[in-house]
């Protein structure tokens, strides 16, 4: 389960549909995928959407080969798109592309039917390879994330739980902020990574401190590490 290059011939371009609520990010992904590299099987971005409703309508109309799916969006996110599209279009392949590398997010979209999950730190070349691989039938995960899936679908003793009830205290965006904070990111860097303002980052951190009854970022980092968010 690596992001190594796919091998073997393909016929015609792979038609991809992008789902992400940040238009600038979609534009960058579109440019990188369609640029490709010499000798790579071509990828064509057939359409894009910034919300769950737009995604469901667009995928239904265009019937792409692969959907690149953001996990967190204001109106429901990746799992909501999967729930509404897969029953009617079981042949469409979904690959999650998210800033989040939290175990609960990975497991939720895989259970919903996604074929793989990669983070937004992936390079353009690796992303193109991941799209080609899921289209060919492989399951593709960023290296650290494969273990979450193996644990979640394993019956062996000691396997990691799919959901930590204590994390239910936090919203998804608060978890994203906490994860980056625990990695040592400054507020300005978190804001840039998540496409939000520094003031919004401060608001989320204050909320997390209040909900967890912790007093500083060092305690938050330990709390996040104990729950495998880092």
From TrEMBL:
Please provide the record's keywords in A-Z order: DNA-binding, Phosphoprotein
| Gene3D superfamilies in UniProt | 3.40.50.2300
Ubl conjugation listed as a keyword:
no
Domain Response regulatory: start-end pairs? 15-135
List, alphabetically, the SMART domains matched: HTH_LUXR, REC
| Pfam families linked | GerE (PF00196), Response_reg (PF00072)
Keyword DNA repair attributed: no
Locate the HTH luxR-type domain: which residues?
A: 163-228
Which sequence positions carry the modification called 4-aspartylphosphate?
Answer: 70
The domain of life for this entry's organism is Bacteria
State the protein's name. Answer: Response regulator
């Amino acid at each position: 389960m690596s992001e190594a290059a796919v091998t073997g011939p393909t016929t015609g371009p792979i038609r991809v549909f992008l789902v992400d609520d940040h238009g600038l990010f979609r534009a960058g992904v579109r440019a990188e995928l369609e640029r490709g590299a010499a000798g790579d099987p071509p990828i064509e971005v057939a359409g894009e959407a910034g919300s769950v409703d737009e995604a469901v309508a667009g995928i239904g109309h265009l019937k792409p080969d692969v959907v690149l799916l953001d996990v967190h969006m204001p109106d429901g996110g990746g799992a909501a798109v999967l729930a509404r599209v897969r029953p009617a279009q079981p042949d469409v392949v979904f690959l999650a592309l998210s800033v989040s590398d939290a175990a609960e997010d990975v497991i939720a979209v895989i259970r919903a039917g996604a074929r793989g999950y990669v983070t937004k730190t992936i390079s353009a070349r690796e992303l193109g390879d991941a799209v080609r691989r899921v289209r060919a039938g492989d399951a593709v995960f960023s290296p650290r994330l494969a273990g979450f899936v193996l644990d979640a679908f394993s019956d062996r003793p000691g396997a990691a739980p799919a959901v930590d009830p204590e994390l239910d205290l936090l919203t998804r965006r608060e978890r994203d902020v906490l994860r980056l904070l625990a990695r040592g990111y400054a507020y300005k860097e978190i804001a840039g990574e998540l496409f939000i303002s520094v003031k919004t980052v401060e608001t989320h951190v204050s909320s997390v401190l209040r909900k967890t009854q912790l007093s500083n970022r060092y305690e938050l980092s330990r709390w996040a590490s104990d729950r495998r968010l880092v």
